[in-house]
Amino acid sequence: MTVDLTAPAGRARMSPRRRARLSRGVQYVVLLVVVAVVVVAADWSNVGETIFNPAAAADMLDRLPRAFYNTVRYTLAAFAVGLSLGTVLALMRLSSVAPYRWISTGYVEFFRGIPALLVVIAVGYAVPIAFGVALTSILAIAAIALGAVSAAYISETIRAGIQAVPRGQVEAARSLGMSHTRTMAQVVLPQAFRTVLPPLTNEVLLLTKDTSLLFVLGQTPAFFELTKVGRDALSTASGGLTGLFVVGACYLVITIPLGIVARRLERRTGGRA
Amino acid sequence: MTPATTQPVVRIHDLHKSFGDREVLRGIDLTVAPGEVVCVIGPSGSGKSTLLRCVNLLEEPTAGSIEVLGAEVTDADVDIDRVRTHVGMVFQQFNLFAHLTVLENCTLAQRGVLRRSRAEAERVATANLERVGLADRAAAMPGQLSGGQQQRVAIARALSMDPRLMLFDEPTSALDPELVGDVLGVMRDLADAGMTMLVVTHEMAFAREVADRVVFMDDGVVVESGPPDQVIGAPLEERTRTFLQRVLDPTHRHPQD
Predict the structure, then answer these.
(1) A11 pLDDT more than 80
(2) Residue A83, Cβ density class (10 Å: 0-12 exposed, 13-18 middle, ≥19 buried)
(3) Which residues cross the membrane (chain A) (predicted)?
(4) Which run of H or of E encompasses A136?
(5) Residues of chain B positioned with their CB less than 8 A from the CB of A169
(6) Average pLDDT in the B58-86 region?
(7) Do A194 and B87 touch (CB under 8 A)?
(8) A121-151 pLDDT, tens per residue?
(9) Residue A8 has what pLDDT?
(10) ipTM score here?
(11) Residue B173: which of B146, B194, B151 has the closest Cα?
(12) What percent of chain A is predicted at pLDDT more than 70?
């Protein structure tokens, strides 16, 4: 150290390296304090009894596979609807026919703005009354209600993907004599989907969790998804909240691998562009 | 050498094009005869790319008429897709379909538009890839190729439609200098094979050696047009001379600057 050029005269100044080390030290101390408070403050015997109760968890075990399967099924059904309807909405949004654009915009604003829970209730109870049809299948309700909501989000994602395809791709296709529709289907959409694959994976993840909203519908045990099973365990078993923590873990079994896939895709497409 | 008596491939009459208030083309007349190679040169912003893009209606003309292969493309009810199948276009930025292999790039429109079978389309595509010297890269993705290779694939893609007219929009402007020769070589072979070509270019050597006619454009009008030896070798117009001086001798200061 030779000359300190920036320090005000008469005042010792810490070097940036030392300051960074001090800052890191403070952060570690804060973390340790928080962990210590949690450990000391928690009533561990109660936690073992009502939150991580092995007996209560074992009690649920026979109902879990079915519920797990249903959750996955509802998610996939809702995503199938969301993806197809979302694609149509995205194309409508970019249409040269103005009313299509209005409808699409209105749809997106509406379904983005109201809670998914309300849509589930509406489809489960209001639609049967309004149209005189009996929707007995939870799968159908999941596909319609959750599909309708996710379509709003997915359409925005896909629209961004379509607009990210360079204009030259369209010009090249059109100058080969390809029609507007064929250009969309064979040149623009395949490339748009590649771009939006990571955000779409995210959408599946959100949908997986939204299937928990289906618990509000009265159902027979064959239709139970994870959250319903967890809630039922709350009232029947002696294990307190254990049921909720068990199904929580089940959701993570689905969502964490999906998250890893999404990150992989992101890295791959990021490297390509 | 060009049969002037036959029906022209392109006939442009009094073409105007404006983008908003800006008039880019201000009354262009141009005809291209079968087998003729016409090079359009001129400073950037002179409207030459817009002129080319009006021929296959990538830009909608504001006024005037364009006839391509006997079809009036400025007629609002023209089947433009059908006209475009006979008109190949090569872009400055190549515009290969990024999600398809080289071979698929060359077969996509053949199968979808011309309704050729897969076998037939692949046979035609392979023949054209051979023609541009890239048959061995048929399975590659566009991103794996150099700019020069991509542009040659783009030419093969256009040729796979068996076009009767080829439009080139500054095909070598985005290339590294050492890759320009390969693309120009392919274009020269094409010209020698009798293809009718309308080429917007800055390659004066190419224009001079390959073109039957050179058109010099500036500020939205055709300033001078004629055989390359005249327009490039001994230009009559002052504007042409100034432009050529700058292009051919860019390191010199010119008194009019």
Answers:
(1) no
(2) buried
(3) 25-44, 74-94, 106-127, 133-154, 244-262
(4) none
(5) 95, 97-98
(6) 94
(7) no
(8) 999 888 888 888 777 788 989 999 999 999 9
(9) 61
(10) 0.92
(11) B151
(12) 93
- The span from the CA of A218 to the CA of B103, in Å, is 56
Query: Does the beta carbon of A268 lie under 8 angstroms from any beta carbon of chain B?
Result: no
Query: Which residue of A162, A167, A176 is the best one to mutate when testing the B interface, meaning the one whose CB has the most B CBs within 10 A?
Result: A176
- pLDDT tens, residue by residue, A63-80: 888 889 999 999 999 999
The answer to whether the Cβ–Cβ distance between B58 and A174 falls below 8 Å is yes
A194: contact with B, CB 8 A cutoff: yes
A27 has a pLDDT exceeding 70:
yes
Q: Is the pTM of this model over 0.90?
A: no
Nearest CA distance, A183 vs chain B (angstrom): 10
Long-range own/partner contacts, residues A89-93 (CB < 8 A, 24 or more apart)? A89/A151, A89/A152, A89/A155, A90/A154, A90/A155, A90/A156, A90/A158, A90/A159, A90/A162, A91/A162, A91/A184, A93/A155, A93/A159
- Chain A 226-265, residues with CB within 8 Å of chain B CB atoms: none
Q: Residue B238 — φ and ψ, nearest 5°?
A: -60, -45
Closest chain B residue to A273, measured at CA = B143
A185 in contact with B, Cβ within 8 Å = no
A180: phi then psi, degrees, rounded to nearest 5? -60, -45
B37-46 residue pLDDT tens: 999 999 988 9
* Chain A positions in Cβ-Cβ contact with residue B108 (cut-off 8 Å): 176, 178, 186-187
Of A169, A179, A191, which is closest to B81 when you measure between CB atoms? A179
Partner-chain residue, chosen from A178, A179, A191, that has the shortest CB–CB distance to B98: A191
Q: Where are the beta strands (DSSP E) in B43-90?
A: 63-68, 71-72, 87-90
